[in-house]
Amino acid sequence: MLKIENLHVAVGDKPILKGLDLEVPAGEVHAIMGPNGAGKSTLAHALGGRPGYDVTDGSVAFAGEDLFDMEPHERAANGLFLGFQYPVEIPGVSMLQFLRESLNAQRRTRGEEDLSGAEFIKLARGQAEALGLPADMLKRPVNVGFSGGEKKRAEMVQMGIMDPKFAVLDETDSGLDIDALKAVGEGINRIMRAQNKGVLLITHYQRLLNYVKPDKVHILVAGRIVKTGGPELALELEEEGYAEVMA
């Protein structure tokens, strides 16, 4: 579903990704782990199309199409979801308004009809209930006053509503307590894993992988994948650190 070949990405004059190769088939969850500064978030931003992350070489095929031929909103409409390490706050815009406009904008891009207000409310409440997010929080401004755990649950609600083909989740476990971590993990499994979609989990730690078992784990160091293994590789990293695993 996602095939990355020889990807080079620079931020300003500084090269960050230096020939990254990675393939994630439909129905699989792959985890990327690596030390700070390895290029994990740069990969997520480049896939999402964030300005300032310049692709200088390589290619990315998404669902058989050239990802870099699409604008960011077209990537989203074609089924790519990007979860942020630090979800942004949008004062003055309610979660319901934001999510309904986002969903219907994507539907229009795909040539589909808008959901009615009643249809959307039913969908949003169902996703919020499944994630343990109180329904009245959907009426509040986007992420304003939310705790770290509430922001991540809200992001999973957004993913459930958008129903993407593939999710790139950048340190979704950051700042979560045990209950929120479990809820987010169960949300990923329900929305993505159970529906034969693709997931790229970017994380520092094993703990999220206790709830979302990856098919493969990749170690990213200095802009390249240097080692790939099964779920046991994450456990080795947790116990031994990067130096021992890569020796």
UniProtKB/TrEMBL annotation:
InterPro entries hit by this protein? AAA+_ATPase (IPR003593), ABC_transporter-like_ATP-bd (IPR003439), FeS-cluster_ATPase_SufC (IPR010230), P-loop_NTPase (IPR027417)
A GO molecular-function descriptor: ATP binding
Organism, by scientific name, is: Sphingomicrobium lutaoense
Q: Keywords assigned by UniProt?
A: ATP-binding, Nucleotide-binding
PROSITE patterns in UniProt: ABC_TRANSPORTER_2
> Which family does the entry's similarity section mention?
Belongs to the ABC transporter superfamily. Ycf16 family.
Signal sequence: where? none
Q: What is the name listed in the Swiss-Prot or TrEMBL entry for this protein?
A: Fe-S cluster assembly ATP-binding protein
In terms of Pfam families, this protein maps to: ABC_tran
Outline the extent of the ABC transporter domain. Answer: 2-247
